């Protein structure tokens, strides 16, 4: 129960190395729980994953472990306070995962983890169960291998990250005093390539919605009724085609109004990190990269907002042909937002746009999903420097400071409510296929990530608070 | 085996009336066979439906019954020739049915026929098993109730109508001598409303295709890759939105080039048959009717070509949200064609249009489905007059001569190969929900249709050949 010295770190690292096989076995048990937060049918599985973590925290010796009930999935919270003179670190991670469809495209079933080609394959292996596990095992390595923690710990694990963290945002404002910390540590990000550690200093925000176009009461025969009613698919595609202009820009009025322009220095820094575009296109299997005119691919992904169609459906989807005019068609949309766009204002502008262009002869409705604001952190904060030292000691090279095209909707509320800097320390790789079939997490990233996590906790213990 | 006199018709009608309950029971057995020609999983069911008919024809006493094997589903052919001095009628119908999705929207399962509210509910009840059954039972009524047939009969039943009759077209040109007839009788059409018999004198043709847009090798996370690659859904909707102009016209160059303009007389005749547009919109459940500018709804449906999107799909279709850029998206399209459009030329123009507008950053492919030309018949032919007399005797009012928005792809090849007029005599009603959930056939239509079929066979026996 004392601030560990350099020997303590070495002992924790030695413990981690010797126990890594067991750590992976335990992770497999966690990965086997199909905790898909978006699907009501998996409600109990999500709860089970939360309870699995709560039990594990108790087993590790956390004096306080709570499972908060919410209107949605539970929040798991734990505390292990060792010394008021040490900094307090709040760790955040999530135990829910994305849906698995198209399930037929998985080489092995998504909830039957398997090691092959040097990686763990399973839904959640990289996003985010594998990374949560790194943290818990770093904690265990200090407790069992070094005799105590180097910092006071608060652990916040939620089951709704993949659906926009609706209940954690509410809990955060209620529990802001209880959860107060000097630093927030989040392990849900990645590195640009193996051997190149990174600290994420910018994340895009998100807002999502679904557009549904309804025509006749039932599906109609396209011969009997073709030419008589408006086809909902036709109405939908004509509406959706208005969302982007010919240059790939989002055509919703006001969409870019609050976008913070990139400085010349930021553009230089991004350029230095960019990969060869042709090679990237080849890796992805596309004829060429594509996006908003006037920006490089990495600028578009890190610092420009996007509006993506995530799904579309309507009518006959089987083999061959069916001569039907479907009764409805729908599309799912998410926007990625950058500073200083506000998700609510963006959503309002999209709603106004849909209303303005709502097609005749059909009924168009819009459902809003949960949202999260964009987030950027100043890389000069001492907590970031502490994590940077840990990464350099582990990988032999200093980290790069990157932004991320993705979103962690809870990032900005965490920083605001707890009034602490957020350190995004992550070990995913770009080809981990998160949210897609064959998601995986490389074993080498697990080993290095565990080591870096041990060192980061030690460095944060030595660092001035935030 | 003699030309029946008026007494024979009355005896056949009396037999039909007394046996109608059993006729329906037998039809139920036919409807229970899920003979969906578009789905490979139902291949054996389609064969079973064909064999069911072949057995039934044998049991009725047809001296010749053949099951032709094809590359697809079998063709059932039967002959009952009674007297070379009598006209020969070739009856055409189909025993395959449309797919049943969305299956959840059926009140009772599609292949468990049920009578409720005065109608038989089942896939195929109206299109076309119920109508094939009317014909077979009219034949039985003559054979068992009146002692013989009033005409020579050839019966041609196929299992590929719903997928464009690819193999029947080939068989027709091979068997044109064997199948020669004076009149072709087709029962696969309908009446505009109960009590108003109709003879269809025009059908639209059809050509179908599928467009598939492929992006990256796998689904991608829309945060990690949003702004980097072209979204296949976005590329697809932008392409599809080009197919129609703001006035509802098809924008494919040359699409209307061969469309025969409507004469003032034809427009007058169509106007006389039109329903109130507001009432029709209310019945269908749409805010208003919609289609190509400058034409009434019935002109658009009967005499103008259309291009309809029958299905669209790509990405996440479940509940809620999934932040994915899908690897591909697709749309299914069918065009309804009118004289003198040629399906092959129309398809070539669509292919050229897709090629011209193929979106960058993705790969677009087109698959063609089978097609059929449009067909019109001169209502002054003696065979049409014979059918008209039968309908007037049955319904107490002369038939209207209608066109149909739908297609029977085999109509034009039948007429051309057999060099005989086609009489479209059908008893479906506009709200039968063919090709949709809860397809049904009204019992009253079965009763009247059976009576009309008996009378039509008798009238064709008295009429000069074609």
Task: Describe the protein's architecture and organization.
The structure is a homodimer of 466-residue chains. Chain A is α+β, with helices and mostly antiparallel strands and 466 residues long. Chain A folds into 2 domains: 6-203 and 374-462, Zn peptidases (Aminopeptidase, 3-Layer(aba) Sandwich); 206-259 and 305-368, Alpha-Beta Plaits (2-Layer Sandwich), CATH 3.30.70.360. Helix content of chain A is 35%, strand content 20%. In chain A, strands 1, 2, 3, 6, 7, 8, 15, 16 and 17 form a 9-stranded mixed beta sheet that branches. Chain A has a 4-stranded antiparallel beta sheet with strand order 11-13-9-14. In chain A, α1 (6-31) crosses α12 and α10 (382-395) crosses α12. Chain A starts with 5 loop residues before the first helix and ends with a helix. The mean pLDDT of chain A is 94. Chains A and B meet through β9, β10, α5, α8 and β11 of A and β9, β10, α5, α8 and β11 of B. β11 (306-315) of chain A pairs antiparallel with β11 (306-315) of chain B, so a sheet runs across the interface.
List low-confidence stretches of chain A: none
Structural class of chain A: alpha+beta
**Oligomeric status:** homodimer
The CATH homologous superfamily of the largest domain in chain A is named Zn peptidases
CATH architecture of the largest domain in chain A: 3-Layer(aba) Sandwich
Pfam family, one (chains A, B): Peptidase_M20
Domain Peptidase M20 dimerisation (chains A, B): 201-361
InterPro entries (chains A, B): Bact_exopeptidase_dim_dom, Cyt/Met_Dipeptidase, Peptidase_M20, Peptidase_M20_dimer
Keywords (chains A, B): Hydrolase, Metal-binding, Protease
């Amino acid at each position: 129960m004392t601030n560990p010295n350099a020997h303590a770190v070495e002992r924790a690292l030695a413990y981690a190395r010797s126990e890594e096989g067991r750590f992976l076995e335990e992770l497999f048990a966690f990965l086997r729980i199909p905790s898909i937060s978006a699907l009501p049918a998996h409600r109990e599985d999500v709860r089970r994953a939360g309870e699995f973590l709560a039990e594990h925290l108790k087993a590790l010796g956390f004096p306080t472990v709570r499972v908060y009930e919410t209107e949605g999935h539970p929040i798991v919270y734990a505390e292990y306070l060792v010394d008021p003179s040490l900094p307090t670190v709040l760790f955040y991670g999530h135990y829910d995962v994305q849906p698995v469809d198209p399930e037929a495209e998985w080489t092995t079933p998504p909830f039957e983890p398997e090691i092959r080609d040097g990686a763990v394959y399973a839904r959640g292996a990289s996003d985010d169960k594998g990374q949560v596990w790194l943290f818990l095992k770093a904690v265990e390595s200090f407790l069992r291998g070094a005799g105590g923690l180097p910092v006071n710990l608060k652990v916040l694990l939620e089951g709704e990250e993949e659906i926009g963290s609706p209940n954690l945002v509410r809990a955060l404002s209620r529990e802001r005093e209880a959860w107060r910390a000097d630093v927030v540590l989040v392990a849900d990000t990645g590195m640009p390539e193996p051997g190149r550690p990174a600290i994420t200093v910018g994340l895009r925000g998100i807002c999502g919605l679904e557009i549904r176009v309804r025509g006749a009461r039932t599906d109609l025969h396209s011969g009997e009724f073709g030419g008589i009613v408006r086809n909902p698919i036709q109405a939908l595609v004509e509406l959706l085609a208005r969302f982007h202009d010919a240059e790939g820009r989002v055509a919703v009025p006001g969409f870019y109004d609050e976008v913070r322009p990139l400085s010349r220095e930021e553009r230089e820094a991004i350029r230095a990190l960019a990969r060869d575009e042709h090679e990237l296109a080849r890796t992805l299997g596309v004829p060429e990269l594509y996006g908003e005119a006037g920006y490089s691919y990495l600028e578009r992904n890190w610092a420009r907002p996007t509006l993506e169609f995530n799904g579309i459906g309507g009518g006959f989807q089987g083999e061959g042909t069916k001569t039907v005019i479907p009764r409805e068609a729908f599309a799912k949309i998410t926007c990625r937002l950058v500073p200083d766009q506000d998700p609510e204002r963006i959503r309002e502008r999209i709603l106004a746009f849909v209303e303005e262009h709502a097609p005749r002869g059909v009924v168009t409705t819009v459902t809003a999903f949960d949202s999260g604001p964009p987030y950027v952190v100043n890389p000069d904060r001492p907590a970031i420097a502490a994590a940077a030292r840990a990464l350099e000691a582990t990988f032999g090279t200093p980290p790069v400071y990157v932004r991320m095209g993705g979103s962690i909707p809870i990032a900005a509320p965490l920083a605001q409510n707890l009034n602490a800097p957020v350190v995004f320390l992550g070990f995913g790789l770009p080809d981990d296929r998160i949210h897609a079939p064959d998601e995986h997490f490389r074993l080498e990233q697990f080993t290095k990530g565990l080591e870096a996590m041990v060192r980061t906790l030690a460095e944060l213990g030595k660092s001035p608070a935030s």
